[in-house]
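Tetraspanin: structure, please.
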Amino acid sequence: MATCPSITSKVILTVIGVIFWHGFYHTYNNYSHLTKDNLTLIPAGIVITVGVFLFILGCIGCLAAVKEHKCVLAVFFFILLVVLVAEVTAGVLGYVYRVDVKSAVKDGLTEAVQKYQGGPGSDEQVDYLQTELQCCGIMNASDWLNGTEWSKSKIHAGLVPQSCCIKFNCTATILAKEIYMDGCYDKLQQQFLSKLVYIASIAIAFAVLQLLGMICSCILMCRSQEIRYETLGGPNSGLRV
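Here you go.
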C-alpha cells in the first residue's frame, strides 16, 4: 500500500511535470514572434531548444510519478540536478561578467543604429525598440545624424526614423518636440534594473521547484526499494505459518 509521503510525492511530481509542459507550450507558442529577422534567430533557437527540453522533462516527470520506476526516477533526479547546477553557474557568470554584457548590448545597439536604412529585416527591431521604450538613438536622438547609413541618404538629411515620433507620422526633424529625445541604451538599462527583482524571484521559485522535484524523486525511489525488499513473511506475502 502506498504511504502518504509517496502519494504526496507522486502528486507533486505530476504537477511539476504539467508545469514543465506548460513552459514548453508557452515557449513554442511565442517562437513565431521571435523569428521575424536575423537578429532573433539565435535567441529563438535557444528558446525553442529550452522549450523542447522542458517538454521532455515534463514527460519524464509524469512518467516517473505514475510508474514509480526507479530508473526513470533516477534520470529525472539527475536532469533536475544538472539544470540546477547550470542555473547557479549561469547566475554566477552573469554577475561576474555583467560589465561585459552591458558593453556587448551597447555595441550591438550601436551597430544596429549605424546600419539602419529603414528597410525590412534587422531595422524592424530598431523601430520596435524605439517605439516600445519611447526612445531615439543610442544615447540621444542626435545619434541618427552622426555617421549612420540613415544620415548618408539625402532624403533623410536632418531627420530621424518615424519610430522616434511621439505621435504617428510626425515631421521627424531633430529639432522638433514631436520626437523622443532620450537614448535607448539608458532606457534598456532602466528596464533591466526594474525587472531585476522579478527575474530573480522567478529564478528562485524555479530552483525551489526543482529541489522539490528532486526530493520527491528520492522519496519515490526509497518507496520503490522498500516494495522490492518487502519481508516475505508480511501480511501480503501469501505465506502461511
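Notes: The radius of gyration is 27 Å.
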